[in-house]
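Methods — Computational structure assignment.
A single polypeptide chain was analysed. Its primary sequence is given first, followed by the predicted tertiary structure written as structure tokens.
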Amino acid sequence: MTVLFALQCFHVLFLGLHDWIPLGTLDDVKAVRAANPFHKLVAGTLISLTPFAIGLAGSAIYFGRACPAWLFWWLWISYGFLFVGELTA
């Protein structure tokens, strides 16, 4: 359970920071900033990060206990969509 929570933290951090902090060959911050104005970057980051931040908060609240059904489905659906998006990207 601890490893899954750590992976979820990593994924949320990567999703939130990959357009803002250079991560070697994983991103191109200069190209992102050249293509998008600051306010669009902020909005895009918040929109894409919110569902995963909610799931992470729920996972942190219920860490070590049985999670409710809504959290179970929230995580499966949100990370399923994220995985499909990563495959298509």
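Note: The mean pLDDT is 91.
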